[in-house]
Amino acid sequence: MRKLFGLSHLFTTVFLYCFASFMVVPAITDVTMSALCPGKDECSLAIYLTGAQQVITGLGTMMMMPLVGYFSDGYGRKVMLTFPMTLYIFPSGTLP
Questions:
Q1: Burial 35-61 (b: 16+ CB within 10 A, else e)
Q2: More exposed terminus of the chain, fewer Cβ within 10 Å: N or C?
Q3: 0.85 exceeded by the pTM?
Q4: Which of 34, 84, 37, 45 is nearest to 92 (CA)?
Q5: Is residue 30 in some structural domain?
Q6: Which InterPro entries match (predicted)?
Q7: Over the stretch 15-40, which tens digit does the pLDDT of each residue have?
Q8: For position 27, what pLDDT does the model report?
Q9: At 4, is the pLDDT very low, low, confident or very high (cuts 50, 70, 90)?
Q10: Alpha-carbon distance 50 to 27, whole Å?
Q11: SS (H, E, C) 45-82
Q12: Burial tier of 16 (Cβ tally within 10 Å: 0-12, 13-18, 19+)
């Protein structure tokens, strides 16, 4: 049990990352739709922009993985996995 307590900061970061991600991803389309087409029930532009945002996020993740792997050799794997997740929590938590 003591070994798991030593990883509590990592468990907390992963929990907050997943919580922020699951809270924001479904709301992105609604926020975009209310910004682009206020008062309408349908807005195809908002759906296309949300899809484009998710594609750009995926491409950015694909491009950053080798960089994170390179820096993890020098700074440590745990730090390089925790740092981007921590940076993702704050803007995602403030969006909704």
A1: eeeeeeeebeebeebbeeeeeeeeeee
A2: N
A3: no
A4: 84
A5: yes
A6: MFS_trans_sf
A7: 888 888 788 777 777 788 888 888 88
A8: 78
A9: low
A10: 10
A11: HHHHHHHHHHHHHHHHHHHHHHHHHHHHHHHCHHHHHH
A12: middle
Could you report the per-residue pLDDT of 51-93, keeping only the tens digit for each? 888 888 888 888 888 888 888 888 888 888 788 777 777 776 6
Residue type, 76: G
Q: How many domains does the chain have?
A: 1
80, 72 contact by CB (below 8 A) = yes
What is the span of the domain harbouring residue 57? 26-94
Token reading at 53: 């945002």
Tokens at residue 64, please? 């950053």
